[in-house]
Known about the structure:
This protein is an alpha+beta fold. 38% of the residues lie in helices and 15% in strands. The strands form 2 sheets. A 6-stranded antiparallel β-sheet has the order 6-9-10-11-8-7. A 5-stranded mixed β-sheet has the order 3-2-1-4-5, with helices on both faces.
Amino acid sequence: MTMKEGINLTMTEITKLNVIQSVIDHKRTGLEASEVLKITPRQVWRLVKKVKAGGFEGIKHGNKNRIPAHAISSDLKEKIITLKNSDKYCDANFTHFKELLEEKENIKISYSAIYNILSSNNISSKKKHSARRTHRRRKRKSAEGDLVQADGTPFDWFKDGNMYSIHGFIDDATGKILGLYMCEHECLLGYLEVTRQMLQNYGIPRCLYPDKYSVFFPAVGQKITVEEELQGKQKPTTQYMRIMNVLGINMFAASTSQAKGRIERLWNTLQDRLVTEFKINNVTTIETANIFLLKYIKIYNKKFSVSPESEVTKFAIVPNYIDLNLLLSSRLERVIDNAGTFTINNKRFQIVDNKILPRAKVDIYINKKNGIFVYHKDTKYKVICINNVPNSYSTLTLNQICNENSIEVQNYALELLQENAKAEIPILTSS
C-alpha cells in the first residue's frame, strides 16, 4: 500500500489503516483485526466501510480538525489574555483570576482552560511556590476560641513603593480571620483595633499566641517602674499585657515564625490576593483599606475557614460592664501640678473643668476614639494641649479653646499609639 502525497496520518492511524486494509484485501478476518486493534468486530467493519468509501481519510476520527461545540471562542481567549495583562488583574494568581472573572466580568471558565490559554501565551501564575521544606505541622485546636494567633506584616499593599503593616488575629481551630487593621507601622494601635474587632464579633478567647514583639511582652532589659513596684509587681509589663490580664486571656510567645504557621500562611494568601482586590475596589489609602478589610474578612472566612472538631466554642462573652473604649487604651499615671496640668513626652496638657486637688495622682487614658482624657475618682475629664495657649483666658475662652483643640489632642493620641515599636520602645509600650 502506498501513501498518497498530502495525506497526513499519525503513526497510530497508519497502524490502524494497515490492519483495516488487510481485512479489505482478505488477508485478515474481522475478528483477527479486532484482536490486533483491541476494538470490537463491529468497530472493525465500521472502519472497513469508511475506508472503502473515503479512502485513506476514512481512517481518521470523525471529530478530527472539528471545533467542538463548547470550544472557547478566539474572541473570548483574547479578552481573557487582555484582562490578565491589565493593571487590574496582572498581580492575581490563576486561581484568584478565575474567581474574579466570574465575580467581576461574568466569565465562567474552568481553571484548566484558563491555565492552557494563559500558559500557551507565556503568561505564568503570580503565585510563588518556594522550595518545599518539611515541618511537623501542629494539629489544630479542637474548639473555636481556644487559641488565637496574632501577628503583623509589612508589605507594599498598594504597589506604590510604601510599606504598610496589616495587623491580624486568626483562630487556630477554624482558620477564621478575627480581625485585620492597617497602620503605617506595626504598632500598639493596630493590635488594639484588631482586639476590638475580635471582642465585638466573637468574644474573649482563652489564649493569645503572638511573637516576642515589645507591644506584647517587655523589651529585653526593660526595668520595672516605680508605679509597678508600688503595685506589688515583680516584673515589668506592657500596656497590652495589662489589657489581657483584665480579660483573663493567657498570652504566651512563639519562639519562631513556624510555630504560628497558620497566620504566616494567612499573610502569604493576603499578600497574593489583597493587592488585586485593592486595585479592583480603588483602595489606595490606609483609611479606605481599613473600611474594605472589614468586608473582606467575611469573604475570606466564607472561602477558606473550616469547621472545628468541637461545636462548643471557647469564646467567652464580653461582660456588659466592660467599657471597650476605656479598656482598649494606653494608661499612664501622672501627678498634676497646682495649675491642673501634666506632660506627655514634653507636651503639656491641662484638665478642663478641673475639680481635682493639686498634686493628685491621676490616670491618663489614650485611645483612638476619645483621644486623651483624665480619669479620676470615677469622673472623666477632657484635656487641652496648652503648648500654644495664651497665659490668661476666661472660662468662656477656655471652652472655645477646648473645642478647637480637640482635633489636635486626637491627632497627638493617634501619633503616640502608632509609634513604631520595632524602631524603638515608644512611651506607650510599657504600662
